Amino acid sequence: MQVSACYRTRMTLPPKLAEYLTRLYGPNQEPELVKETEWSYVYKTGEKSYGRISKFLLDESFTVLASDIRVRWPHMDENERLDFVSNFWSKANWTANDTELLEIIMQDGNDRIWPNCALAFLRHPDRDRVVRFLIKRLEEDNEDEPLNYIQALGLAKDKRATPAIMPYFDKYQKAVEVEVENGLPEDVVFGPIPYHAYFVASGALLKIDGSPEYERAIRKYLDHSNKQVRWWAERALQGDEPPSPD
Length: 246
Known about the structure:
Blueprint (H helix, E strand, L loop, with lengths): L14 H11 L6 E5 L3 E5 L5 E5 H4 L7 H7 L5 H11 L7 H12 L19 H14 L6 H10 L5 H15 L2 H4 L12 H15 L2 H8 L7 H12 L8
Antiparallel strand pairs: 1-2, 2-3
């Protein structure tokens, strides 16, 4: 995570953030707050290491009225929208107000905005509509790796999603099999072989169909020489989607 130099002035930690960081890192380490947005905090934990915490997650009393966002949304630039959607959906207690916020985002968003809150769609009460929305995103999305949509559909466990996910699974599977000829790349996270994407797609299909085919596709990597690849495979089998690399 790159943080602008203008945010590197020492900032005082708000009490709730200080308490959270103490629980996370212990009393002997004091991360530095380097940036505060309307919806989140960014803090420094090492020379080049940063973390971010949503204000919605940090403080259960932190709320934003949908009526206010409805007025503000048309005037927010894309960066402001991204900051909002990537933070609001992580709140612990979901209410009708939050569903209304989600409606605003669904009605006026794009494929830069929606992936940042893809799992939030599963909290919408109209599951049928959400599944159709996510499938449409996969069918129309121009990105090479719409992994958050695939992850959400896997968690929805709706068989209608299988045909939409299959082209991605086939593509990632062919790309991963290149390792047999080219060998293990130096960087398995950001390198040329999409291991992470493959386990997201195969894990989603396993959740939806429960087919031995997808289980076998994942299990063959449980004894892989690379620890990260083995970890992704284990998580996919356990039903946990591997998180996207930072």
